[in-house]
Write a structure and sequence with these properties.
- The protein is of the alpha/beta class.
- The protein contains 15 helices and 14 strands.
- It has an eight-stranded mixed β-sheet.
- Helix 1 crosses helix 15.
- The longest helix is centred in the C-terminal third of the chain and has 15 residues.
- It is globular and about 60 Å long.
- The two termini are 37 Å apart.
């Protein structure tokens, strides 16, 4: 995996960057920003809402980052019809060679290989045989690499989060509009079977008027965070020494934002966040690491759990939670409440009126007929997080083949990642509300394609 030259970013630097770009938040005075149009950075191009891809008979993909995530996605790309891997890049030559062998073993031409230092990706992106760049590197690299991809004429898909400061998110929006290249948060959880079923049912009015939802990333990562090999250079744990906020918001927020038609009739307007004390990683270190381990020099500032409430323009509320530092079973919460009923996941359960038995949960399996066509007609394929990874890539490739707009655009991507910076700002301000930038610049009421895509 690639290490970013800015990996010494301090907590205060990140907060200042977010505040400066977050449309005028008065950080010292705890005053929320104005939401007037004058607060938005001036547009540098036309909107990318609803803009289709140009149709590609073969989608030529270049991959940057061949660590745990990138290497696991490579076989799924290879399983797609009409997709060619033309270039692969990582700072580790052995990872590049292994990826190239995997492509050749599938009977495909060997991809071009790039591993000559941290910025060799720039040479890869200058190639003329890449239509779509896939980025799976440490978080601080995501936005700079995505910008470089678009400026080199490539559409780009990025792992979560797509950017770590608000000014980075605005830059992604601006460059996408300038270059007419799509920039996509590859949020696999939006393509989970339960998430897509709830989405279809919500859009069919089965929950009535939607009131609130909840999403989270609750995942015990302590062993992986302290692994010497899992995250190259242990980059992910380093973020727990830099920033106290929700470091991984999109898995929980993306699906709920889709349920609520965020950027398609509603928008996120403000967030307030609080964090618990930081205890879990220090306790794990105490119990598992020898006294001479370099990790003993670290001070963890990221609270074990960061909890946020986000309000929308229509008055709905989203509850967002992040905790990777404590022992617990995995959960993304994935909840939706409307005037006619509620869905709660982990385990999945539902109550709907007028058919539900009062005060009793119904059987979620009874609603399988409402599955999205991707799950009915395509299925999980070769898997990856239960099938959501494959279906995300399948749908992405389909939109590129047919010349359709992407399900997730740059405005969704920026909005879903914004809590990374905004939650930290709110936590640092004692839980004060922080306004969400309107990355659509006032176009959030306009209908356009989203994750609830019709079958082409």
């Amino acid at each position: 995996m690639v290490e970013h030259p800015r990996n010494a970013l301090s907590r205060r630097t990140l907060l200042r960057s977010s505040a400066a770009a977050g449309a005028g938040l008065s950080f010292a005075g705890l005053a929320p920003a104005a939401t007037a149009q004058s607060a938005w950075p001036a547009a540098k191009g036309e909107t990318m809402m609803g803009v289709p891809f140009e149709a590609h008979e073969t989608v030529r993909v270049g991959i940057i980052g061949l660590g745990n995530r990138g290497a696991s996605m490579l076989p799924l790309f290879l399983a797609l019809d009409g997709v060619a891997i033309t270039a692969v890049c990582d700072t580790r030559a052995e990872a590049v060679e292994e990826a190239a062998r995997a492509v050749v073993e599938q009977g495909r031409p060997e991809p071009a290989k790039y591993s000559a230092g941290e910025h060799d990706f720039e040479k890869m992106l200058a190639r003329d045989d890449i239509d779509f760049a896939y980025i799976a590197t440490p978080w601080e690299w995501h936005a700079p690499m995505a910008v470089a991809a678009m400026r080199n004429g490539k559409h780009v898909g990025v792992e979560c989060p797509i950017g770590v400061t608000v000014d980075e998110l605005w830059e992604l929006v601006d460059v996408s509009e300038q270059t007419r290249r799509h920039c996509i948060q590859l949020e696999n959880c939006c393509y989970g079977q339960n998430e897509l079923r709830v989405l279809r049912m919500a859009h069919d009015g089965m929950f009535g008027d939607l009131l609130y939802g909840a999403g989270a990333y609750l995942h015990d990562l302590r062993e992986l965070l302290f692994s010497k090999t899992y995250y190259a250079g242990q980059w992910r744990r380093a973020w727990h020494t830099k920033l106290n906020g929700d470091l991984y918001p999109t898995h929980g927020l993306g699906p709920v934002a889709a349920y609520l038609d965020v950027n398609r009739g509603d928008r996120l307007v403000r967030i307030t966040s609080m964090s618990t004390p930081a205890r879990g990683l220090a306790a794990y270190r105490q119990e598992n690491l020898p006294p001479d381990d370099p990790a003993w020099q670290e001070r963890y500032v990221k609270g074990d759990a960061t909890m946020s409430l986000i309000q929308t323009e229509q008055g709905r509320v989203v509850h967002l939670v992040h905790d990777v530092s404590n022992g617990r079973p995995y959960s993304r919460l994935n909840q939706l409440q409307g005037t006619k009923g509620v869905f709660e996941d982990y385990p999945p359960r539902i109550y709907l009126e007028p058919t539900g038995t009062p005060h009793e949960w119904g059987n979620w399996d009874d609603y399988a007929e409402h599955d999205h066509w991707l799950w009915k007609d395509v299925g999980p394929g070769p898997g990856g997080h239960g099938g959501m990874d494959y279906l995300m890539l399948y749908r992405l490739a389909q939109t590129l083949h047919l010349g359709l707009p992407p399900d997730i655009d740059v405005y969704d991507s920026a909005t879903w990642s914004a809590p990374f910076a905004l939650s930290a700002q709110s936590v640092d301000s004692g839980g004060a509300p922080v306004d969400f930038p309107d990355f659509t610049r006032g176009r959030w009421t306009e209908p356009h394609p989203g994750v609830d895509s019709p079958k082409p």
